[in-house]
Each structure stands twice: as structure tokens, then as C-alpha cells.
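Reviewer 2 asked us to include a model.

Predict the structure of this chain.
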Amino acid sequence: MSTSELVCLGEPMVEFNQLKAGDDLYKAGFGGDTSNTAIAAARQGARTGYLTAIGQDRFGDLLLELWRREGVDTGGVKRDATAPTGIYFVTHDTDGHHFHYYRAGSAASRMTPADLPLDLVKGAKILHVSAISQAISESACETVFAAIDAAVDAGVRVCFDTNLRLKLWTLDRAREAIEAAVRRADILRPALDDAQTLTGLHDPDAILDHYLAMGPRLVVMTMGKDGVVLATRAERHRLPPNRVAAVDATGAGDTFNGSFLARLIAGDAPLDAARYANAAAALKCTGYGAVAPIPRPETVRAFLAETRS
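Predicted model (C-alpha cells):
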């Protein structure tokens, strides 16, 4: 039986992040939304495992080294000698950061339900999956639903991130798959802009009503410059954004996810967990890359203490 309290499933990637707008230099790092989430949770002290497939290549080796270094259990990682590990580039300009993916035919996109180590899913406290993992291929989408079904059957809570990437699939297909996952989720993690596109609604409260009616017990929606709102059927709380000297928002939502879930597992009330995660996500933005700047608890707690004083 798994010793991982949080199990994440999806596609990890190797990242090349432009150091500044117009620069020819790129800093190597790591990405993939659910991998970032697993690492963020592990850095906050949660026992975390990752389920995926990676190539039998140097990029796959680097990811394995990363997870082992970060304390993320790799018992659910499959190596595929016939497919590559995905990579992506991040560029920056006055409009923000932009992603350029090279993931077609990746090992993770070839995952099937038969690849799932169901004992690892069933032994967790929380399973975390995202819409990106659904979007990379039909078989990966089926794998996400198989993992969700196994978790629900075992009484494991499901956290679902609506992370929308319309370069990977059509809006109609995204809505269909995402709404099916939302109905099975206990914790829903939308971003406001994605939720507006998916639902056709614009008011945050209307969006929260829409999603809560679909089944999740808890919806935690990040809203960029407007902060975070946490909602149940009984109450709503809004958290203001944290002011930092931000340079790169890549992976901020993933840092929020991992930090929030780690604090829930540690026993925090959802509002306290969201307050902690909100601070962790802001601190992540003070450095380049999706993984390297993810803060550790002492940094987050010091920041929270400073902002309260």
C-alpha cells in the first residue's frame, strides 16, 4: 500500500525558460503542472508520489533525479523506450510569459488505464489530476478518469485543476471532459480566466455557484490580481493578492495547488490552507522557472508573519 498521502498524475516536462525578454539565453529547469504540484507539496512536508510515463532518455533521467532529490516517490513512474520525454520553452515580453511545447507523442501522452498502479491511488489521501493531463491524448484522458474512479471507489478525495490549454484540444471537447471530471471531484481548482471561458459566465460568484452545483464540496478559485476566493455551499472567503516583486508567474497555480493540498493533509482548515498557498504562490513568482523558486515552509511562514505585522 502506498505511503504517499498525495498522489499526482500527469505529464512532466523539461523546461527552458528565457531569462528576460529578448534574451538569447534560456535557463534549464522542469515543469508539467501536476509534477510541479507534487514537488510543491513535498517541499511543504507532504508525503507525495507521482504517476506518469517518461522516455528512456536523458530528459527522463533528469526528471527522475529531480523527484528523488525532492522526496517525491517514483514508484508509479514508467519508462518508455519508444517515446520521448516532453519539453517546452517559456518566452517573456510585455504581455507576460508564453509557452511553446514539444510534447506530441510523448511517453506521458501514451499512458493508458492499464498502466495505472491502482494500489498507489487507493492508498493516498488525495489524488490530484488536471485538464492538461486529459488534453494530451485520448488514452491519457481515459487514464485520468480511471484514476478518478479508483480514488472515488476507495474513498480518496479527488482534487481537479481545470487548467485549460486550447492549443491541445477544442473548447467543446475540453468542456465535455472537464465537466465530467468536475462532477467527480471533491476539491475543484479553477483559475478565473479559464472558468470564464469554460462556463460562459463572467461574475466570480456565478461561476462558484455553477461549479458547486455540479458536486465539488470545495472550490478554490485563483483570480490573479484579485486574489483568491474559497467557497463551499455554506460560505465564501476572499483573500487579497500578496504584493511581491514578481518576475515569472510560470507554475504559480501549481505551487498554490501543492501548498494548499499539503496544508489540508497536515490538518489545516481550508481557509488557513488557502492563505498559506496564496503566499507560497506569490513567492514562487519572485524567481524564474516553474520549480526552482517554489518556497519552503520557513520562507512562507516568515512572509506571512511579515504581511500580518
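The chain has one domain: 6-308. The first strand starts at residue 6 and ends at 9. We have added this to the supplementary material.
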